[in-house]
Structure to design on (65 residues):
């Protein structure tokens, strides 16, 4: 999944991956829904954290049915 993206992705790349705006990405990061680290003003977001977020979304939806 997302093989064309680097192992560490930017805010803009996460927005492209999830097909959402960058503001929504920042909100997900603030809410702790996508694991990340912050170095100064830069966000370090592992690609696998985005994949994990998506997996959790679908798993949570399946459990609600």
């Amino acid at each position: 999944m997302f093989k064309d993206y680097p192992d560490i992705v930017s805010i803009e790349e996460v927005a492209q991956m999830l097909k959402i705006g960058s503001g929504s990405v920042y909100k997900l990061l603030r809410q702790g829904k996508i694991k990340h680290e912050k170095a100064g003003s830069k966000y370090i977001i592992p690609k696998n954290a985005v994949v994990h977020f998506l997996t959790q979304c679908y798993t949570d939806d399946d459990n609600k049915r």
